[in-house]
Structures are given as C-alpha cells and as structure tokens.
Amino acid sequence: MDFSKGITPSGDSFKNQKWTILGEPYLPLHVSDSAMLMHAEFNVDSFVPTHVHDTQDEILHILEGEMEFETEGKVIKAGVGDTVTLPMGIPHSLHNRSGALARALVVVSPVARMYDYMVAIDGLSDPAEVVRLGAEHEIRFV
C-alpha cells in the first residue's frame, strides 16, 4: 500500500471509503502496510464477539462514551481518554454497555489482511458471514 505524507481533513477518509459493518460505521483514516487507523462508532448495546488477531496488535483510544473489553477472563472498562492495547494472539471482545454512543480511534498494526477484511465485510448484516470471512482474513472468532 502507498504511504504518502499529508493530511486527511476532518470528515474525509482513506480513498473516500466509509464502511458499515453490522450497522456500525467505520471510517478508515490511514492505511499502509505497517498500520491502519480508523474512527469507529459503537452504538448502545453493540459488541464485537470474542476474536483473535493472530497477525496484528489492536489499540483503541476512547474518544467518547465508555467501552468494556473482555480478555483473559477479565473485564476492562475504558472511558474518554483511555487507551486499550490488545496484543496479537490474545482473544478479546468489545462491548458498549454504557447506554450511550461510544467512539474510538482504532489502530491495527501491522495491517496484514485487516484492510481487505474490512472491505469484504462492508455492508454485511449477517454475523455468520462476517465470521466466515474473518477466517479467510486471519481473524478467528472463538
């Protein structure tokens, strides 16, 4: 992928892409081989089930609201200004149980097949298909 210096203005995205996955909006802001940065919104009671990134670290910085992360038998609550680091190979899930919208910046590094996965699942409303495609893109739902 091409990495060029510059700025992505507010409201713009990488290659003008905007993804909606199971009803949740994701806005890719930067994509290169080494990292992908996305703005994500998590509606009330939304969640991403337990999954593993075998080839990427995932980092979330909470911009608005509160999120819960379940990993290694623990529940971690994160609020505005908190940064959550989820190393590769560690099963984890994400939940918005706060009763209000949550927003986060999400970094995935290295990108590996994550960008292709996000493109593949854009617009899907069937969780089983999201899981199936995850297996084809190095994301295991467990």
Automatic annotation (TrEMBL):
Domain of life assignment: Bacteria
Keywords associated with the record: Plasmid
InterPro entries registered for this protein in UniProt: Cupin_2, QDO-like, RmlC-like_jellyroll, RmlC_Cupin_sf
Residues covered by the Cupin type-2 domain: 44-108
Pfam families, per database record: Cupin_2
Keyword presence, Ribonucleoprotein: no
SUPFAM superfamilies per UniProt: RmlC-like cupins
Protein name as it appears in the record: Cupin domain-containing protein
Species of provenance: Celeribacter baekdonensis
